[in-house]
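Structure tokens
________________
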Amino acid sequence: MNKAFDKEKLKSDIRNYVQNLFRTTLEEATPQQVYQAVAYATKDVIINNWLATQKQFEKDDPKTVYYMSMEFLVGRLFGNNLINLCAYQEVKEALDELGFDLNAIEDEERDPALGNGGLGRLAACFMDSLASLGYAAYGCGIRYHYGMFKQEIRDGYQIEVPDNWLKNGYPFELRRPEYSKEIRFGGYVRVEYDPATGRNHYIQDGYQSVLAVPYDIPVVGYGNNMVDTLRIWDAEAVNEFQLDSFDKGDYQKAVEQENLARNITEVLYPNDNHYAGKELRLKQQYFFISASVQTAVAKYKKTHGDIRKFYEKVTFQMNDTHPTVAVGELMRILLDEEHLEWDEAWEITCKTVAYTNHTIMSEALEKWPIELFSRLLPRVYQIIEEINRRFVMEIQNKYPGNQEKIAKMAIIYDGQVKMAHLAIVAGYSVNGVAALHTEILKKQELRDFYEMFPEKFNNKTNGITQRRFLLHGNQSLAAWITDHIGDEWITDLPKIAGMKLYADDPKAQQEFMNIKYQNKCRVADYIREHNGIEVDPRSIFDIQVKRLHEYKRQLMNILHVMYLYNQIKEHPEMDFYPRTFIFGAKAAAGYRRAKQTIKLINNVADVINNDASINGKIKVVFIEDYRVSNAELLFAAADVSEQISTASKEASGTGCMKFMLNGAPTIGTMDGANVEIVEEVGAENAFIFGLSSDEVINFENNGGYDPSYYFNNDPDIRNVMMQLINGTYSNGDMQMFREIYDSLLTQDQYFILADFKSYAAAQRQVEEAYRDTERWARMAMLNMASAGKFTSDRTIQQYVDEIWHLDPVKVTVDPASFDVAPKKAARK
């Protein structure tokens, strides 16, 4: 219970906000207006805690981590904030008394379109854990106006439409124009010699610039009064609209600055299949990094004299390669604005920046054309060029005459600036995100760097926040767990292991399965409303929801569904436990093969769902516009967690952890975090199949894989493959899926045909286990009870102990500060 939420006062505040914001009464207010009013009333309490946190920071002067990420997939914040304020029940009761349903009010919040996949959701989980553990942190990102896109499915195809999440404003953000920073692009570097110091000064001239304006979103810690800050940057024109140019007819010049600013923060991950897209991505990265680094330096200098001790109070964690330009920008500020010598600036930088690698896929390690980078960021490029020159000398000293090492390790080589190389050379820490991933980095992808800098490399297995994905997302299960073992698991997830005592208890098994059934009914209602498809909540809910990429192998999943359908059609009498296969995924706008896979899934769904002869034994559903809010529903309802990436390709994966926490056994390869899940829960409580990572890597390095062998020798595989090109799922159009067919038969880069029969066998094991209700309940409960390792609280504590070395902050709030009223609420 939160003392800040006096029920009667809250009801009064809600009425006042409805009146002051919208000039209406509560009785006439729309659900959106009620949501806004409750959100603002909640924000009053949050701001009190936020101010108290800042005062405590000023008093304690803690070291602060700046977590830099292109994405923060925070999900809806209203319900999550209530959970972390320990006020969910009080607000629910207050709204009940006013005649409103809290669940319906929560549905009025649009998911903030600040991220897309696991990278962004991890960043959001990390911020939640940092605040809940009491560590000083800033998340640094971009205030995208439209996110990546809102996904619509039309005639089975993905259509990208703008995700206008800011349409109604966003009550939890605060615009902070007083902390705006100027960001400069292009131009040239002029050198001035200073005879007094004997130094050259480097000045960027002829540039275009935009204003980076911060919007702060509170990150509420659980039950500890702590509020950290997610600072997302928006771009505005530096100068007012050029009316004189407009009047003279020079319309292009008049809107030039406005367009520059607007483009930078319009969308997440603009299509970079063309030069303009690449340029915009680099602009975005430098934009938010420069603003964040400038802010960190200014904030440090405000209370500390000597910039040479910067790293004692500040650390930058670069979430993948996107923020790596922070290395060059910090060097630029230290050299050109603080006038340090190179060696001093480099020492500070190398003690400040740390790098998290999120991918084994070499094509995802960012590389920029020299021409683009040097033209857009001329001074930063000069600095990186000098970093590279010095590093190449290091390589030559360590490996004399070894030109191959330089080719593999140089930061600038073959016309490209290689950002991962820059991050490793400058960073004091380089971490992978699962034990297997880190080992593959050390032995394969980054082997040369590991040999040169072994002390930098370490593993930090990813985690998730149980507060969103269990306490908020699966409230009935959370309450049931608390009834059995108390509520310590909310802040100490390993305590959930206490539920193992109940895994063999028939009464507990029945209660658990009843909760699962109710959650499946909730998803069945969602599917009926959004897809118009009737699914049976008594069927096995087999769910694969994640970013659409070929290595994640949604294609293998739908090919297996086609195989099962063939089996049922050929053997109508066969005993088959009904299945509902649920997919959810966005494909990048320019990713042709991924978008074809979405079309295939939807076409297969149309055929199977409308075939009355199979009596509903299989249903296939594609969830449109997969996002955090509908993910919470799906994790809670899943029977089976599909984690079927090609072994060695998934760095970690965190969806696997969310399913596990909600009691869904994994069907998967020994890849990413699956390896550690199996270690925790036992191989007997998961369904593992397929090639090992070593086998995959061996094929890739030495050849020998021939997908046509499986086509020629396995009639089931051949039958499914032929259905891609004989019109079965394309209304007779033999070309619609020809590209998928050709890629599988001639290349099969991700070993789908090699793993197919092993996958099908594992799926038969799933059905066999599910038929044994007691066995399945035990497996599911043990998965839930074994998820303690996979909390982001554990991951963050490891970052703190082994990389950042932060001290916790304890925040106290004066109860008198709770007496706030929305008397000065601005009219929207």
Residues 820-828 have pLDDT under 50 and may be disordered.
